[in-house]
Write a structure and sequence with these properties.
heterodimer; A: 391 residues; alpha/beta; Rossmann fold; 2 domains; nine-stranded mixed β-sheet; six-stranded mixed β-sheet; 12 helices; B: 290 residues; mainly alpha; ABC transporter involved in vitamin B12 uptake, BtuC
């Protein structure tokens, strides 16, 4: 019985691209150890799985090797719990001796990972967490990000709002770092194109009682409102905004997270909303179509922006490893190659800035049915200002 | 702020307060009368919201029927839960109660994840409550919110009547103040507690079901109401229904106007209120059972 289950599990391991232990300790320096620290439980579990799927899809497409070396995975569930982050990341760095860290979704956890990666000089590829600080004051040559900084979609939306003639806008978000960074980006973008934010509204995380602030918006009558919320909060805010009848007179803008993965729950209240993000559901490019097809075949589900970010995390790493022929000791050359080599992403080609954040097109999308459809490029090749980064 | 805006904000405060009361009333019953610190109360709220989500396709526009069926299911669930777990807790210290009820939170969250998944889901309200009315040329006020407030008021009155005007209510109040004496008089206190617990669970679930079309259902929604409910219960006086009502409305007003006038500090407003009340009246606003 145990024999059968052993065979079965190694079969499964092979199928999902994990190299069994038997194949290690051979070849040029053995396999590269990659530590996936992602949320596999809790609110963000679906995001963690999408990122892992995307990452492994790219590795499989390269025949299971990056830079000519086999890949061995180690996994830790970070539970999106910042207090446990340092312990969790040390399991991978100290216990498993991984060469590369990949993670994570939650910004608070990612900041702890960035610190540990710096202290131990481990390579870190961040597939989602958008905290500006990671590629700002915390930046380092061994840290890169395949997703976005919170500032980026906000800034792009601000530029678009200004172009649409918005002079007076209000922002609303939870009183936490990501919200502040996103609305700051919006404010800068709007000012750049001639408008002004007259008031920033915020409420404590994760409070979802918006009615008082909606009344405040109705009383102030701005030209537009920019909101940063995610998950359940995003659903409730968009629904409450529509139920208060505000969407008829004051357009509601936001970063893509306001309408990504939430459209089924938001229903009619989100229709025709404009948001900005580095990905859209119907980008009709050969690369994106090929990616979506391969993903659907491999995992029997449709990829989302998180899967794209996971896919690109593997791609950025591959670019670096290819340049040094899989030799991880050539750290400077590897860091430089990861930044210099263009990434052929499903979202479109992009490169990394010196700070390690994507310099990418941000798209303007419109909600149609259950899709965030591409409308136009809001800002071309937008780079995060990387304030506080000395690279 | 002009008068119209001020009045709309007052309406917002009352409406939020009433919804809070509905969740907190069940907690004050269980905490105050049975002496059990029930951290899983937020999970019962979540259970109600997910029940509303699960039952919606079956009942369509039979919204009130959906509520009744959900409440009955929740009450039965609470009855079983008391029999299986909570009945062993009364003689034990608070640490063990906290351990058990915290474990229940984890179990409920995991069950939710397995059964429904981690996505956010919208819950349809009844079509006969769709739309809203214009308020002072400012904004629309959804009919459903008015309905939710009215439903909370009805429950508040009914609860007051049951606790203060019926034989069952008399036994509950007596059981709260002297458990042994009530048992000595021949009342089956175990069954009484089981009923109270089932009632508390049903109230939390009802609140979740009423809130679901407004808030949608999502992971972790229970924990967000749990803390504010404990604040309400402590301010109102542990075990007091009237106190919970007054405290809910107070918290509603402090939260609403705190967000408008002191945006940066709105998170601490209700806790400052709690601190002031506790300094002034360490037992809370009202005495238990009234």
């Amino acid at each position: 019985m145990s024999r059968i289950s052993l065979n079965f599990s190694s079969l499964v391991a092979l199928m999902i691209g994990v190299v069994p232990f038997a194949a290690t300790a051979q070849g040029a320096g053995g396999p590269i150890k990659i530590g996936l620290m992602l949320p596999y439980s809790g609110t963000y579990a679906a995001l963690g799985n999408a990122i892992e799927n995307g990452f492994k899809l790219y590795v499989q497409e390269q025949g299971g090797k990056l830079g000519g070396r086999e890949i061995q995975y180690f996994k830790v569930d970070d539970e999106s719990e910042p207090p446990k982050a340092t312990d969790n990341v040390n399991k991978l760095i100290k216990r498993d001796n991984v060469d590369v860290l990949v993670g994570t979704v939650h910004s608070g956890v990612a900041l702890a990972m960035a610190k540990a990666a710096k202290d131990n000089n481990t390579l870190l590829v961040i597939p989602n967490a958008g905290a500006d600080a990671i590629t700002g004051p915390m930046c380092g040559p061994n840290i890169v990000r395949s997703s976005f900084s919170n500032w980026q979609p906000g800034y792009a939306m601000g530029v678009v709002a200004g172009q649409k003639g918005v002079k007076r806008a209000m922002t609303i978000t939870w009183n936490y770092a990501a919200g502040a960074e996103s609305t700051k980006g919006f404010t800068e973008g709007l000012e750049k194109s001639g408008g002004k934010v007259v008031k920033d509204l915020n409420l404590p995380f994760p409070n979802v009682e918006f009615q008082a602030l909606l009344t405040e918006i109705a009383a102030q009558k701005p030209d537009a409102v920019y909101a940063f919320f995610a998950g359940g909060g995003a659903v409730k805010f968009v629904k409450d905004y529509a139920a208060a009848g505000l969407n008829k007179t004051i357009p509601l803008y936001g970063p893509g997270f306001l309408t990504d993965g939430t459209l089924e729950a938001q229903g009619a209240s989100a229709q025709n909303m404009l948001t900005t993000l580095h990905y859209a559901d119907n980008l009709d490019t050969p690369k994106n179509n090929a990616f979506r097809k391969a993903y659907a075949i491999a995992y029997k589900s449709q990829p989302d922006v998180y899967a794209v970010q996971g896919y690109d995390a593997a791609q950025i790493l591959a670019n670096g490893l290819k340049a040094v022929g899989g030799d991880l000791s050539k750290r400077d050359a590897l860091a430089a190659a990861m930044r210099k080599t263009p990434v052929d992403s499903p979202r479109g080609k992009f490169t990394l800035s010196a700070a390690g954040n994507p310099v990418q097109d941000i798209y303007l999308r419109e909600v149609k049915g259950n899709n965030n459809e591409f409308r136009s490029v809001a800002v071309k090749a937008l780079a995060d200002p990387a304030r506080g980064c000395k690279l | 702020m002009d008068t119209a805006t001020f009045l709309v904000q007052c309406l917002n405060a009352v409406q939020y307060g009433l919804l809070l009361f509905l969740v907190a009333s069940g907690l004050t019953l269980i905490f105050g009368i049975m002496g059990v610190i029930n951290l899983a109360h937020g999970s019962f709220y979540m259970l109600g919201a997910y029940l509303a989500f699960a039952l919606a396709p079956w009942f369509g526009d039979w919204f009130v029927t959906r509520l009744v069926v959900g409440v009955v299911l929740a009450a039965v669930f609470g009855y079983l839960l008391e029999w299986l777990f909570f009945s062993f807790l009364y003689e034990r210290d608070h640490l063990q109660q906290v351990l058990l009820t915290y474990a229940l939170i984890l179990v409920f969250e995991e069950m939710r994840s397995i059964l429904v998944g981690n996505e956010v889901h919208g819950v349809a309200g009844p079509s006969w409550l769709a739309g809203g009315f214009r308020l002072g040329g400012l904004m629309e006020y959804p009919w459903y919110r008015v309905f939710a407030s009215a439903a909370c008021l009805v429950v508040a009155v009914a609860l007051y009547a049951v606790v203060n005007r019926t034989r069952l209510g008399m036994m509950i109040r007596a059981g709260a103040s002297n458990r042994d004496m009530v048992r000595g008089l021949g009342v089956d206190i175990r069954r009484l507690y089981r009923i109270v617990f089932a009632g508390g669970v049903a109230l939390a679930a009802l609140a979740g079901m009423i809130a679901a079309p407004l808030s949608s259902v999502y992971p972790g929604m229970g924990s967000s109401v749990l803390i504010i409910c404990f604040v309400v219960v402590v301010i109102g006086g542990i075990g007091s229904i009237t106190g919970a009502l007054v405290a809910s409305l107070l918290v509603g007003f402090v939260d609403t106007f705190g967000k408008v006038f002191f945006a940066e500090w709105s998170g601490v407003g209700v806790y400052v209120l709690m601190a002031i009340v506790l300094v002034w009246r360490p037992e809370g606003l009202m005495k238990r059972g009234f």
